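WARN no homologs supplied; continuing
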Amino acid sequence: MMSGIRAAALLLLVAAAPTAAPRPVMIGEAGDDLDACLSMGAVHGLNPRGDNFLAVRAAPSTRAAIVFRLGRNHPVYICDSAANGEWLGIVFTPQPRSRLNCRVGSPVPRPQPYNGPCPSGWVAARYIATVAG
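OK structure emitted
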């Protein structure tokens, strides 16, 4: 059994753990003659007995802040990657069936951070199934 002092120290360590600095999702890295984001995917492989959502983070790290939560089959644009492909930079509509144009289906003149109108962030690649591109 853990003493009260040890438990308090552990809580302080967890609370003081550094968080990863935000990192923008880049678009247009494949060149100015291809779409800003080359692939489309969908959330898959979530544990139905778990929290049943995919955390979208501000940077490609489990220590980064969660900025959004996506459910099963939520469509995403795959635009960027990090950590040897273990993390994907994605752009997505807030609602799965939204008609909002995220403006990533056409070329951009140079690589640049994504700047809306849709949300963007980083997810663990193992939870995204590529469906096009």
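The helical segments are 4-15.
OK
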